[in-house]
Amino acid sequence: MQGILLVDKPVGWTSFDVVNYVRKIVAAAENQRPKQIKVGHSGTLDPFATGLLILLIGKAYTRQAAVFSKLDKTYEVTMKLGSTSSTGDPEGALTAVNKRVPNEAEIRTVLDKFMGEIEQTPPIYSAIKVGGQRAYKLARAGKPIKMEPRQVTINRLELTGYNYPEVQLSADVSSGTYIRSLVEDLGAQLGTGAYTTALRRTKIDKYPIDQAQQLDGLDIEKISKYFYNSST
Prior knowledge:
two-stranded antiparallel ribbon; alpha+beta; 2 domains; Pseudouridine synthase; 25% helix
């Protein structure tokens, strides 16, 4: 079995959880041990996030992981104003900043400032390797971490809803963009602080969420039906 399976990751699952789950289904169907089945994904989603994962099944496709991971992505985002989070999401320790209520025009003005190529510092709670170790593991161990800024591109950043303290956004971004960092930077510009409370990936390049399969009830018959060979 060589190809791609689009999956809609549920909240609470890690990306590795999804890979492991599908690997076991394929291994059982092929009468092999799970470790003999090559399965990977093309871009991590945080446990609190939901949405599209491209699973790469078989050696011919797992070898292309770097190619798939460089594809542009689309997200639906909810950010909460007035506080910051140690992890940039609901799982971290919250720190109140203030109760200033920016108007919609202010928010749109700030969003416009982040359009195009920007410099962004990834969060310390991320899967980026620092000195050969995952940054989030070092952060959890209380070790000092210096994250280097990187250039990313925001192709579209739209306000889709606002009811203080929650702001809804829709964003098209380049690979390597961290929405949690983007939200923190938006909150800093607004002078309110902000963190991401909900995140859903709805598209990766030409692959849309409406073609993705739910994990609930997934079996080899469904995998075979919606599994396909493709290229980017």
